[in-house]
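User: Need the bound-state model for manganese (II) ion:
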Amino acid sequence: MNLLKECEGAKSIGISGHIRPDGDCVGACLSLYQYLTKCLPDAEVKVFLEKPADIFSELKGFDKIDSSFQQEPDFDVFFALDCTPDRLGDAEKYFAAAKKKINIDHHVTNSGCGDINYIFPKVGSTCELIYDLVEADKLDRDIAVAIYTGIIHDTGVFQYSNTTPDTLKKAAHLISFGFDFPRLIEETFYQKTYVQSQIAGRAMMESVRFLDGRCIVSVIDKKTMDFYGVDSHDFEGIVNQLRNIKGVDCAIFMYETNTLEYKVSLRSNEKVDVAKVVSYFGGGGHMRAAGCTMKGTFHDCVNNLSLHIEEQLC
Ligand code: 5GP
Ligand code: MN
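Assistant: Bound-state model below.
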C-alpha cells in the first residue's frame, strides 16, 4: 500500500485507534498524523482518540488529538489503527461513514474490516507497520519519536518475543534521528507515579495463584480505585509484573468497570495462547497478550477463564 497514493485528492482525512489507547496506538496515530499533515498540506487531517495518558504528551501532535468526537462524520479517507473498527469507540461512526476505509493493524484477531487492509499479525507493533509505510525521505525526528514510542511499548522495550531482527533494524534507524531515547523509555514505560506503585503493590499483595501456581489473578474493584484516585491508565504494567512471577504461565489482571463488569488483561508465556482464551469472551489481542470485557461476579469470570486456560496447560 502507498499511503500518499491512497490519500490522493482527499480533502478530509481522519485517524483513530482503539479505546483506552496504549503507547502503540498513540504512537501510530500521531506518527501517521504528522506524516500526512507534512506530505499533504492541502488536506485537513484530524486525529481522534480517547484521552491518552499524559506520559505521551511530549509527542508532536498530542495537543491536536480530538477527544470530544463532536465533528460530523464526512471523511474522504479514515484510518483505523491498531484495532478492529468495533474498538474505535466514538470514532466508529467516522470509519463507518468514510468514503475510503483503511485498516492498519497487527492483531491476530483482526481479519480486516476496511476497503484496504494492511494487517500483519507477525509484526510486533502497528508502529512498525507505519514505519514500513512511511517514505524514508519523509521520515523526520518527530515522526521517528512517535514510531519508536509505539515499538518500545508493544515489545516491552525489545524484550517480548515479538521483537525481530527487523524491529531492531527499524529501531536503530529511528534512534539515528538523535532523540533522547533513554529518557523516553524511562518516562513513558518504566516510571510510575507514587499511587501507581501503591496500586501495583496492592494488586501483588492480593493476588491469588491457582492451577498449581501456574496461573495468577488479581483484581482491583471500583471502591479501591476511588480510594487511591486511580483510573485504567494507572494499571499499565501490573499484568506484566504478575506474569514475571516465577512458575506463572498465565497472569490475569482485572479491574471493575461497572457493577458485575470487568476489564480483563491476560499475559502468558509460550504455554498458553491467551488470544484463544479471550476469543470465547468476545475479546482479542495476541498470543501472549490479550484482553476482553467480562460480565458476572469476579469468581464467575475467573472460573470461566480458568476452564479455557486449564485446557491448554495440560
Ligand atoms: P491489554 O491487556 O494491555 O489491555 O491488551 C493486550 C492486547 O489485547 C492489546 O493488543 C489490546 O489491543 C488487546 N485487547 C485488550 N482488550 C481487548 C478487547 O476487549 N478486545 C479486543 N479485540 N482486543 C483487546
Ligand atoms: Mn499494538
